[in-house]
Automatic annotation (TrEMBL):
GO molecular function: L-aspartate:2-oxoglutarate aminotransferase activity; pyridoxal phosphate binding
Spans annotated as Disordered: 1-22
Anything else known: In eukaryotes there are cytoplasmic, mitochondrial and chloroplastic isozymes.
Pfam family, one: Aminotran_1_2
Enzyme nomenclature, EC number: 2.6.1.1
Species: Staphylotrichum longicolle
Organismal lineage: Eukaryota, Fungi, Dikarya, Ascomycota, Pezizomycotina
Name under which the protein is recorded: Aspartate aminotransferase
Length: 451
């Protein structure tokens, strides 16, 4: 027994690392975790991305404990009590849907809910549009307007390759910030055309025409159909006609983004006017359509993407081929679009009584926005605030480019707890009868202090 002791002791000693205590094992793990990790994605390859400015603004607003704080950055409608407004017609459609014994949660077809996409096309082009009657339209339900822009960008990136065409996408300066990322993410280069005149706070029409005229033939031109985001400045009907004539001469490809039909003026047909005019002029074009704002279905992500072929003997065949490729792209991205918001919108669009009530709801929202524009301008002029403020009422839709400088915007945030984007864009929906005078008075003080 004694002779074996040394070997047992030696064996015990040599195997100690294999049978270390739990404390030693934990220390070893801790040491390993504390050491620099090996990754395929080092900082020089995957740098920390900056926070989205709008969501950063929202976070700062929520963290502000001041009872006077005002959110003018939010891109969603608020009622006069500063609360989200569920449209009464949406509540009715929701009740119809929940009471339907045949309702289920099965997949939609890849192209989406046909009763929505067909009516969505009519909403944009008109009930008796020749393009629809001649089967020159292909419509796909998307993840709201963002998804529609992305699907269109993806389609163009893959298929817009005709001889002599320019794959650069021209967007207005400024435009909705997400436009830049969506197109560059699919490999399409971006260029800008002048749009906002900082001196007049209106449209730089001459600059826009010059840029579109000098762009290579066949360029892709992104156009806001109404309620331009972020400026609230729209071309007049006469200017739209000039734009269409110039684009036809240059063989440019129109890409319309429409997120505010009916919400801008309260008139669905008026807000669709530019799109209908371009279609009537024989353009081949695409349209991204959102139901977030005009139905208040922000989180339901209901929207559509539409292709419209130019009139020709084989337009229907072209449209069928385009639709087939859109379905393949959609299948590989989201497979099938979401159903709830689509059903809500479809119920309203297909019921004459509910459709009429929806139009009234749209007039309520657009009317309140117009009232806030009038009140803000009126108070600023009453106070004698330096500068001209007619642009507040000349602009249209949810947003207004106030002309305030970044320094003035930051002063409004730090001293008065009024939140807006640093370029001076405000959401008119953030104003109400209880805060509009406060905002105007604060703007007056800041403008006088920082010239």
């Amino acid at each position: 027994m004694a002779a074996k002791s040394p070997r047992v002791a030696a064996s015990s000693s040599s195997s100690k690392p294999l049978h270390s205590s739990p404390i030693a094992r934990l220390q070893s793990i801790a040491n390993h975790m504390a050491s620099p990790s090996i990754t395929s994605f080092p900082a020089e390859v995957v740098p920390q991305a900056p926070e989205d400015p709008l969501f950063g603004l929202m976070r700062a607003y929520k963290a502000d404990s001041s009872p006077d704080k005002v959110d003018l950055g939010i891109g969603a409608y608020r009622d006069d009590n500063a609360k989200p407004w569920v449209l009464p017609v949406v509540k009715k459609a929701d009740e119809i849907l929940r009471s339907d014994p045949e309702a289920n949660h099965e997949y939609l077809p890849i192209a989406g809910l046909a009763s929505l996409t067909s009516k969505a096309a009519e909403l944009l082009l008109g009930n008796s549009a020749p393009a629809i009657a001649e089967k020159r339209t292909a419509s796909v339900q998307t993840i709201s307007g963002t998804g529609a822009v992305h699907l269109g960008a993806l389609f163009l990136a893959k298929f817009y390759k005709i001889q002599g065409a320019n794959r650069t996408v021209y967007v207005s300066n400024p435009t909705w910030a997400n436009h830049h990322q969506i197109f560059t993410n699919v490999g399409l280069p971006i260029a800008t055309y002048p749009y906002f005149n900082k001196e007049t706070k209106g449209l730089d029409f001459d600059g826009m025409k010059k840029a579109l005229g000098s762009a290579p033939d066949g360029s892709i031109i992104l156009l806001h159909a109404c309620a331009h985001n972020p400026t609230g400045v729209d071309p007049t009907p006469e200017q739209w006609r000039e734009i269409a004539s110039l684009m036809k001469e240059k063989k440019h490809f129109p890409f319309f983004d429409t997120a505010y039909q009916g919400f801008a003026s309260g008139d669905l047909d008026r807000d669709a006017g530019p799109i209908r005019f371009f279609v009537e002029q024989g353009f081949e074009l695409v349209i991204a359509q959102s139901f977030a704002k005009n139905f208040g279905l922000y989180g339901e992500r209901a929207g559509c993407f539409h292709y419209v072929a130019a009139p020709s003997s084989n337009a229907a065949e072209i449209t069928t081929r385009v639709a087939s490729q859109l379905a393949i792209l959609q299948r590989s991205e989201i497979s099938n679009p979401p159903i709830y918001g689509a059903r809500i919108a479809s119920i309203v669009l297909n019921d004459p009584a509910l459709f009429a009530e929806w139009q009234e709801n749209l007039r309520t929202m657009s009317g309140r926005i117009i009232d806030m524009r009038n009140k803000l301008r009126g108070k600023l002029e009453e106070l004698g605030t330096p500068g001209e403020w007619n642009h507040i009422t000349d602009q249209i839709g949810m947003f207004s480019f106030t002309g305030l400088s970044e320094a003035q915007v930051l002063k409004l945030r730090t001293d008065y707890h009024i939140y807006m984007t640093k370029n001076g864009r405000i959401s008119m929906a953030g104003l109400n009868s209880r805060n509009v005078d406060y905002v105007a008075t604060a703007v007056d003080k800041v403008v006088r202090e920082i010239q």
